[in-house]
Amino acid sequence: MEDLKKFRELFLSFQIDAVGPEVKACLDRGTAPKAFLACCQECMEEVGGKFDTGEYYLPELVVAGEMFKDVSERIKPLLKTGDSTSTGTLVLGTPQGDIHHLGKDIFKVLAEASGFTVHDLGVDVPAASFVDKVEATGATILGMSALITAAFEPMGEVLRLLDEKGLRQMVRVIIGGGVTTREMADRIGADAQTRDAYEGLKIVRTFTGTGE
Amino acid sequence: MIGQPGKKIYPKDTMTAEERLEAVVRLEQPDRVPLSMMLYYYNPFHTEHSMSEYMSKPEVYRQVSRKVYEDLGPWDMYYNINPISRLLYSYAMMMRYLYPGIELPDNVMAQVDEIEYMKPEDYDAILEQGTTFNDLRFRMRMLPRFCKDAEGVHPARLWPTLARDFIRQKRFWKNDMNWCREKGLVMQIGMQAEMPFDLFSMARTIVPFSLDLFQRPDKIRRAALRLAPSFAEFMIWVARLMGTPRVQCYCHRTSNSFISPRQFEELVFPSLEEIVCRIIDAGMTPILHCDGDWLKNFKVLRRLPAKKIILQLDGLTDIYKAKEAIGDHMCLFGDVSAEKLALGSPDEVDETCHRLIEEVGKGGGFILAGGCEIPYNAKPENLKAMTKSVYKHGYYTEQQAVQVQVPLPKAT
């Protein structure tokens, strides 16, 4: 990891423009692509930890996620089979009636950086599409994000459809977004609720046994 | 003072709504807690009108909102949106709105489609342009980039349409104001707009703006500060013209749910202070619409003039903690949650309102309201419970306290 010391420093001091050239320099020096993934994930953990304690805020989390994405794209073609493993599979989207995507997108970046395979259905997603995707991918986690109360009913509808199709026992459901509450999650029968993308990540990691 | 409704809302009241509002802004104890219902998208569902008709025909909007007041009122403050033109509304809010009946199905709420319409070089353009009307010029330059009704139109050609819509808007608000006077209500808004920092955040969108915060923080600060004087002066001018001495300043992206207290202090506060102080100096009340969690910003916010500002919270700031942290400095406005109004029961709503009135309303300086706008799917019986709560629990003195069994007077 000595090779990656400078990369790590640049990443953790958010020197966005310097990270890409350093990746190239490290690869030219022969650093294994797999080592980048491990280093990036460690950096994300550190940023996430500081976000958790209130030292960092959303921009740090978003910028770290963007740097992670950038590094991943650079090294993806160089990875060998078996270099990366999925932590879990999740289906994500904003339910019908709501087109907000901000929180969902931040959560997606964090989940991918944490090793999850994410199937993002986008916004204004009909209830049946969530359920079909869960069925088709065998995802064990379903995340729905909303910023307006118009999404309450469609979220409930997704839970009802999962029940109807006999899938409810196989998938953990988390709802997120500024308008959601724990009480609301209980009302519709979701397993968890959050208003914070990083907390959401910690919750889904507990679902897969990869978190605290 | 602009506008002086003289009618009392309840027979028990000893103050008019305007006097009550002025008292709570000064953090004095009025006769009872005032109530604001920020009703917009809820209204057409209540009266079973289509959302598209409600949003495109000001006469329908007027008819619908008055019917809702008759059914669910009375309250003290009238939330006067009535956006007669999408162009004008986009100018104020600087967001791309998709409208029911146009881009969206007929009966859904309008939605904000966040697109990146501002580029990093636009900060430079702001800093390079002169100071006269620069907020106005900046907004006009941006409008064709995001507003559906301005796409492809040269900014210079937008002026006549905007001016025409502005005159129409004034006419409708004037009519609303006359109605408010008859009922004894006060108009909530003389003018409303997205604050410069928040505008940049929306216009750049979350990821590019987060990168900007690291790559060009000083440009953000200076550009916001450069726009601040003309932003404030235009807001004041419109509010004067509309005859309502309150300016609603939207701070959608300034909370600690997004940026750090340090970023708030260094990048946001200078322009926010400039704007707020100019509004106050003009004899008006700034209403800071503070979405997200603001608790850690309150220490800096206390540098603003005391007893002059209304602070609207949206459920993400703990209003009880806000009372402790800044309740002796600013009037608090909120904060019955959307979730409670949409899914709770009237008893739950009453309980929430009662606690807010007792704890946040203690000693004055409080306006009972929803957290942000009332949700479109609020239950009418919950809104009625909210209305009744200020009558049941909101009077400050024993003599004025009203027994629960006393029937509530009709709104009309």
Give your account of this protein's structure:
The complex is a heterodimer of chains A (212) and B (412). Chain A has 212 residues and is α/β, with parallel strands linked by helices. Chain A has 2 domains: 2-78, Orthogonal Bundle (Methyltransferase, Methionine Synthase (B12-binding Domains), Chain A, domain 1), CATH 1.10.1240; 88-208, 3-Layer(aba) Sandwich (Rossmann fold), CATH 3.40.50.280. Helices cover 54% and strands 11% of the residues of chain A. Chain A is built from 9 helices and 5 strands, in the order ααααβαβαβαβαβα. A 5-stranded parallel β-sheet of chain A has the order 2-1-3-4-5, sandwiched between helices. By secondary structure, chain B is an alpha/beta fold. Chain B has one domain (17-400): TIM Barrel. Helices cover 50% and strands 10% of the residues of chain B. Chain B is built from 17 helices and 11 strands. Chain B has helices at 17-25, 42-47, 51-56, 58-72, 86-93, 120-128, 134-146, 155-183, 196-204, 206-215, 217-242, 261-281, 298-301, 319-326, 338-343, 346-360, 380-393; strands spanning 36-37, 77-78, 97-98, 111-112, 186-187, 191-194, 246-251, 285-290, 310-313, 331-336, 366-370. In chain B, α14 (319-326) links the parallel β9 and β10 (331-336). The two termini of chain B are 26 Å apart. The model of chain B is unreliable at 1-5 and 399-407 (pLDDT under 50). Classes of the chains: A alpha/beta (212), B alpha/beta (412). Chain A binds chain B through residues 14, 16-17, 56-59, 62-63, 66, 97-102, 105-106, 148-150, 152-153, 178-181, 183-184, 187, 195, and chain B through 98, 108-109, 111-114, 206-207, 209-211, 213-215, 256-260, 263, 291-292, 314-316, 337-339, 342-343, 375-377.
Describe the secondary structure blueprint for this structure:
The complex is a heterodimer of chains A (212) and B (412).
Chain A: H1 5-12, H2 16-28, H3 33-52, H4 58-75, E1 88-93, H5 102-113, E2 116-120, H6 127-137, E3 141-145, H7 152-164, E4 172-176, H8 182-188, E5 192-194, H9 197-208
Parallel strand pairs in A: 1-2, 1-3, 3-4, 4-5
Helix pairs in contact in A: 1-2, 2-4, 3-4, 4-5, 5-9, 6-7
Chain B: H1 17-25, E1 36-37, H2 42-47, H3 51-56, H4 58-72, E2 77-78, H5 86-93, E3 97-98, E4 111-112, H6 120-128, H7 134-146, H8 155-183, E5 186-187, E6 191-194, H9 196-204, H10 206-215, H11 217-242, E7 246-251, H12 261-281, E8 285-290, H13 298-301, E9 310-313, H14 319-326, E10 331-336, H15 338-343, H16 346-360, E11 366-370, H17 380-393
Parallel strand pairs in B: 1-2, 2-5, 6-7, 7-8, 8-9, 9-10, 10-11
Antiparallel strand pairs in B: 3-4
Helix pairs in contact in B: 6-11, 7-8, 7-11, 9-10, 11-12, 16-17
